[in-house]
Amino acid sequence: MQILPIALALIGAAILQVTFVDLISVFSIEPNLPLIVLLFFVPRRPIIEGLGLAFLSGLLLDLLAGSPLGLSSLSLSVAAFLVGAVSRDWVEVDYQKMARLFLLGSLAFEVIFNGVYLLGSELGPVGGFLRYALPGAVYDVGIGMLILAALPREWWRKI
Amino acid sequence: MSVTVREWAAFGLALFLSLVLLASNEHRQVQFIRATALSGAATLNAALTSLRSIPASKKTIRRLSAENARLLLENARYREAALENRRLRQLLGFRRRSKYEVIPAQVIAKSLEGAVRTITVDVGALDGVRKDDPVVNASGLVGRVYLVGKHSATVHLLLDRNFKVAALIERTRVNGILSWSGGEYCLLEDVPARADVGIGDVIVTSGLGGIYPKGIRLGLVVEISEDVTSIFKTIFVRPAVDFSRLEEVAILRRQGSER
User: Fold this and answer.
1) Between B142 and which of A110, B83, B135, B190 could a Cys-Cys bridge form, CB atoms 3.0 to 4.6 Å apart?
2) DSSP string covering B29-97, please?
3) Where are the domains of chain B?
4) Chain A residues in contact with B156 (beta carbon < 8 A)
5) Can you name the residues that pair with B203 across neighbouring β-strands?
6) What does the pLDDT look like over B2-50, one tens digit per residue?
7) Hey, what CATH class is A3-156 in?
8) What does the pLDDT look like over A110-132, one tens digit per residue?
9) Rounded to an integer, what distance in angstroms lies between the CA atom of residue A98 and that of residue B168?
């Protein structure tokens, strides 16, 4: 798969994230579309390319969303690296494997993103994890799996 | 899972660059880049956001018509009160209060990613918006302008950890500091343990600090917790604004201010 369509998908996801995704927020928790798109493509690309995509789409997301510049790129880079490393020898995936990848990547992203942002706040690390990181990760996995289920299996089964 | 040295190095570089950026968020050049990018994205965001408002526009017109009628009545009452207030002030020799210019704005992007709570509005420096200008809607204080582009601005909401405002319990005139509690409520701090405060009390801005005008509604007291060892009360406040339904806001700019 060429890198340009992936980059375009990430840009589209980042724009949708700040314009429409609040419509499906639950208890002020939103799924993160660029993260879901990234976690879908990372196992299909070399780790360094995945890292580059994660870093740049994180910067774009921070610029569009008004979050501190560097926060999403840091969190997405860690998520992409972990998922890329875990899946590097895989040749085929099924729903279960993709769910595991989504969960690993989402948890890494949400823990770092919220952990850094809430550093020193009243909520504390456990409160931040329970209030934002865990529900956010669960929502990301749910939406990721729904998107996967809507796509023909032949498109994503082979890595 | 075997990662090559080159991949580790790339990972390290990505982390290093991200951390450098994170540490330089308040740097002037970084702020300039963010403001420029914000302006570039604003047109696209505005076009996309207008798509979602089309189905709701009929309903909005009906709601606004009813709201308009109610406000006309309320305005008439306030006009009377203002006249009376002016007469009394003249009697007491008070200085005329500074006035704020109201800049109406449309929300064109929202971010509720995790604990980050921001909105982007379709007015910016060319419309007279400045950093730290207060943002309100009909219900009360929404937040404060954080980043200003040419035609757009990013606003930190009341429910963001970067937000703090000097507040006042409307009924008893007790001062405190309102900040985000970490959840969907705010925390009113520095209120003495012996202060008179009850559930349902209205919290407004106190005007101290000079950024926010006095009397803007912040929320209602929903919970009071008292610790015998503390000289302060912990008061939880439900924000007056429903942040999930923000569509139109107004930016207040002190007339003649040049920050």
Assistant:
1) B135
2) HHHHHHHHHHHHHHHHHHHHHHHHHTTTHHHHHHHHHHHHHHHHHHHHHHHHHHHHHHHHHHHHTPPPP
3) 164-239
4) 66
5) B169, B219
6) 889 999 999 999 999 999 999 988 888 888 888 888 777 777 777 777 7
7) mainly alpha
8) 999 988 888 877 777 888 888 88
9) 52
User: In angstroms, rounded to a whole number, what is the distance separating the alpha carbons of residues B137 and B158?
Assistant: 12
Mean pLDDT of B163-170: 91
| Each residue's pLDDT tens digit, B169-208 | 999 999 999 998 777 889 998 899 888 999 999 999 998 8
Separation of alpha carbons B103 and B77, rounded Å: 24
Question: CA-to-CA distance for B87 and A141, rounded, in angstroms?
Answer: 63
Chain B residues in contact with A74 by the CB 8 A cut-off are 14-15, 18-19, 22
Say which CATH superfamily domain B164-239 falls into.
Rod shape-determining protein MreC, domain 2 (2.40.10.350)
Contact A141, A79 (CB under 8 A): no
Candidates A18, A82, A83: best to mutate against B (most CBs of B within 10 A) is: A18
Contacts of A90 in chain B (CB under 8 A): none
The contacts of residue B226 (CB under 8 Å, 6+ apart) are B193, B233, B234
The string over B32-48, giving b where at least 16 C-beta atoms fall within 10 Å of a residue's C-beta and e elsewhere, is eebbebbbbbbeebbeb
Structure tokens that stand for A6 in this block = 């992936």
Q: By the 8 A CB rule, do A70 and B19 touch?
A: yes
Query: Any idea which residue has 């996801």 for tokens?
Result: A13
Contact between B167 and B244 under an 8 Å Cβ cutoff? The reply is no
Tokens matching residue B235: 């008061």
ipTM score above 0.95: no
